[in-house]
Amino acid sequence: MKLSVYFKKFFQSSQASGILLIFCVIFALIIANSSLGNGFQALLGSKIGFESLHLDYSVSIWINDGLMAIFFLLVGLEIKRELLEGELSSFKNASLPIFAAIGGMLIPAVIYAGFNSGTDYSNGWGIPMATDIAFSLAIISMLGKKVPASLKIFLAALAIVDDLGAILVIAIFYTDQIHWNYLLLSFGIVAFLFILNYLKIKKIVFYIIPGLFLWYFLHHSGIHATIAGVLLAFSIPTNESTTIISPLEKLEHSLHYPVSFIIMPIFALTNTNIAFKNSMIDGLFSSLGLGIIGGLVLGKLIGINLFSWIAVKLKISSLPQNSSWKQMMGVGLLAGIGFTMSIFIALLSFKNEIDFQDEAKFAILIASVIAAVTGFLVLNLSSKNNEIIEEEDD
Questions:
Q1: Residues 146, 381: Cα–Cα separation, whole Å
Q2: Which of 43, 108, 354, 378 would give a disulfide with 295, using CB separation of 3.0 to 4.6 Å?
Q3: Could you give the angle at the alpha carbon of 268 between the alpha carbons of 266 and 269, nearest 5°?
Q4: In 10 A of CB 15, how many CB atoms?
């Protein structure tokens, strides 16, 4: 097989982005713990932009708040399409990710509080509530056809609701100040975008330009700016036709490869930049470390499946099509990959405690690795004898 053909097949496979992401994680950890670590950290901290427009930010902020807004835009487009015409188009299917996300936020917070109530670590209760949508979707994508598409959509929807919940927690409990003037301007932009949709404006550029302003205003409001991607996605027009490609489908298709093979790898390189210290090992066995690991690994697993089971038993919701409770357990574990958002909350929780921050980062990394490996294994084993063959490959 020619090398060019091999690479083409690799990049077209669903596992490719996940493999590349894991490679970037390992590479970033090696850099962070080598002689290049300080230089790489300095690069991420260097500022670029336009100070006159209040857009003078570090490289890491541009990546986490800027590039990741594009990732959230893509995921938002996929969710909207599924809500209108796919796996989430029925109330029973669409409601399940919401119930699951609520359980996946409450139980981890309770577990963390159980370990740390009344201690110096008590302010970190929000750390295990988060799910890293980029990494969790990358891991499940590596399973390819062994996992039904409906389960992947469920995880994406769950992670978005989870991240929106985490953003609200940050805004209410961890943000020093909300700038209401910028927030009101953001609401105005959102209203304008939906008016364009109502007027059946089809050209994507008329949505992207206001979307840039929406990102700017949200970022300055104190709310995490990545939510701008989701809000913009839900305003992009679509249609019910199977023959005419909608603006939503065009944009979704054009973003797939840049997000999977450029934005997500850059994101991984930036956010796995963790330099190991001896104190981090001891921190794993402190109440902080146990609260984070217990919350992310066990809390997510229990919370997501318990609340999902209740919703299904009450006949409010139904399981994703072609999925089982064993597979739901695997998804619950993958949702324990807290990583970036958890680290972000940890930094806010312990602003003036560098040692606490380092211990929390390492505990989050260990918990995320445990969640990723066990989630992958559970999904792989539960699907081993029941591989899903999608209709397009029949």
A1: 9
A2: 108
A3: 65
A4: 13
Contact in structure between 248 and 328 (CB atoms under 8 Å):
no
- What does the alpha-carbon distance between residue 61 and residue 215 come to, in Å, rounded to a whole number? 13
Confidence (pTM): 0.79
Tell me which H or E stretch contains 111: helix 91-116
CB atoms within 10 A of CB 217: 23
Residues 6+ apart with CB under 8 A from 343: 271, 360, 361, 364
Tokens for 248?
């939503």
Both tokens assigned to 132: 């890293």
CB 388 within 8 A of CB 320: no
**Res 393 pLDDT > 60:** no
Alpha helical stretches, state H, 117-246: 133-141, 149-169, 180-198, 205-221, 227-233
Q: What angle do CA 332, 334, 337 make, to 5 degrees?
A: 120
Within 10 Å of residue 122's Cβ, how many Cβ atoms?
A: 16
Tell me which residue of 269, 273, 267, 279 sits closest to 354, measured CA to CA: 279
For residue 362, how many other CB atoms are within 10 A of its CB?
A: 22
For residue 319, report the phi and psi dihedrals to the nearest 5 degrees: -65, 150
Name the band, by pLDDT with cuts 50, 70 and 90, for residue 390.
Answer: very low
**SS3 for 383?**
helix
